[in-house]
Amino acid sequence: MSLRPMGLPPVPEQTVRVARAAFPQGSLAIRVRDRLGEVFTDEPFAEAFGVRGAPGLSPGMLSLVTVLQFAENLTDRQAAAMAIRAIDWKYALGLELTDTGFDHSVLPRFRARLVGNGMERVVFDRLLEYCVDAGLVAAGGKQRTDSTHVVSAVRDLNRLELAGESVRAALEALSVAAPDWLARAVDVPEFAHRYGPRVDSWKLPGSKVKRDQLSQVYGQDALRLCRAVWSPDAPAWLREIGAVDIMRQVLVQTYTVRTSSRGKEVVSKREADEDGVPPGHLRLASPYDTDARWSAKGDDLLWLGYKVHLTESCDNTPPEAEAEAEAEAEVRGRPNLITDVTTTLSTVPDVKATAPIQQQLADRGLPPAEHYLDSGYPSAELIETARSRGTVMVTPVLLDRSAQAKSHAGYDKSAFRIDWKARRVRCPQGNTSTGWHPVRQRERDAIVVEFAKTDCQACPVRPECTSARRGNRMLTLYPEHLHTVLAAARAEQKTKTWKDKYALRAGVEGTINQALDITGIRRARYRGLPKVRLQHAFSATAINVVRLDAHWTEHPLDRSRTSNLTRLSYRLTA
């Protein structure tokens, strides 16, 4: 397939007349074509297409179809049907009324081409560039970030089901790639009886003994198949089949192979306490999506999938009107627009996403002067680094989590006086530390301060200071510059001024809800992290298009969803 850069074709006159008559007030698709047509050009996609071969559909047009698809939360078939029967879509795409459109299979192939060439965010970035040029978003303002969970597009499997399904997936792949070799390597009728239907399509045995026996059978079959594939007489390319390699990884992560006292080989399931299991960020959870991971948040939320971080501008939202922010901001000045979307594995903590998000904003020329985040994002190093680059992180840092601080009794770190130059610490009873040890903890610099056992054991208030069995108090400190930053942030966040200012962050919850309602952002449409990233980039683009449309028409978003009584309650609370 080749590319002949043309962009969106001009709208035929008949399509214009019919669309204007059918939509006298306009529609989202019509206004997007009229105002944002320059965003959906072919040139940014040139590297993904060749210069030889039959010309394909315009990638600019397909990107516009995809944005409208996400704005209306449609499937591929529904989006292709809208390009045929919806007059406003024909106007947006520049099609004749009699145009028969395209097959729905074009859309997944287009997405696969974008993912294969690292172009997941091209349309999102193009729209942001337009908004910057139009003065709708700018550097140096206020922005806020929050994350939410994303459920994967695969079934939830327990460890037993995963072991069986990984063998089944490998057999399915080998049945197509090397049927003759497979017929010689295994007993096909027996394996077909065991692995023909999906593992989760029938009820697992109720007793633990029978489940353990089934687990052992799955492990033995996986080991037998791996040995056959990796035998010297097997074609080497069999080992490169993705499903086969996944089966091998599941086998290693789920089972151990031992030799009994009688010399018999025993395959048994790993036990966490005895054999150990891989950490969550490495442990496979499905043979069909190797990027999806199990993760938990608190005691109530457990999911298999990913995590998405949304960042939006919020210059026009006063804290006292936060409850109605998304409705009111669209009719005042500039709209609140999503400036960054970052998708990660579900096991990646929020603090690991802070620096990449701020770097991406800086790369787009949109670094905020104030960045509002919740307590999962900051660290002393990140606060200091952001400040050195001109960004103030307005975020609650975690308080001292020592037993003394949590009980509000005894002496926490703030009760000790630190002399950084002399490298000594004085306790509330006047004793001086005897040890000052610079160390590396969790890949960061720290200082461990130790007091003498003789001083601590004779101290009259020792129970209020430490309960350590070693008998003396020890403190772990950040280096001086980071300790100062952290202490200042903890002191500031206790003030009413800071709390009133921080209320601005709450509005990003409304953005996540809007993304959930419009695009279904909490459920992955596709499998694999690159494709889920593409989904979220188009979801964010669709949300921005919807907000721009509300800004152009001076129509607040979702005003009808909030009752008059609720709005009155918000005003009285403010």
Task: Summarize the model shown.
This protein is of the alpha+beta class and about 575 residues long. The protein contains 23 helices and 13 strands. The chain has helices at about 15-20, 30-35, 60-70, 75-85, 85-95, 105-115, 120-135, 160-175, 180-185, 190-195, 210-230, 240-255, 325-330, 350-365, 380-390, 405, 455, 460-465, 480-490, 495-500, 505-520, 530-555, 565-574; strands at about 140-150, 255-260, 265-270, 295, 300-315, 340-345, 370, 390-395, 415-420, 425, 435-440, 445-450, 475.
Mean pLDDT: 90
Q: Proportion of β residues?
A: 5-15%
- General form: flat
Spans of at least 5 consecutive residues whose pLDDT stays below 50 are: 317-331
Helix-strand makeup class: alpha+beta
Radius of gyration, in Å, reads 30 Å
Q: How many β-strand stretches? A: 13
Helix content: 40-55%
Number of helices: 23
Major sheet attributes: 6 strands, mixed
State the distance separating the first and last CA atoms: 58 Å
Give an overview of the whole structure.
There is one protein chain. The chain is α+β, with helices and mostly antiparallel strands. The chain contains 23 helices and 13 strands. It has helices at residues 13-22, 28-36, 59-71, 76-85, 87-93, 106-116, 122-133, 159-177, 179-185, 188-195, 208-229, 242-254, 325-328, 351-363, 380-388, 403-407, 453-457, 462-465, 480-492, 496-502, 507-519, 529-553, 564-573, and strands at 142-151, 255-259, 265-269, 293-297, 301-313, 338-345, 370-372, 392-394, 417-419, 424-426, 435-441, 444-450, 474-477. The strands form 4 sheets. Strands 1, 4, 5, 6, 7 and 8 form a 6-stranded mixed β-sheet that branches. A hairpin with a 3-residue loop joins strand 4 (293-297) and strand 5. The model is unreliable at 317-331 (pLDDT under 50).
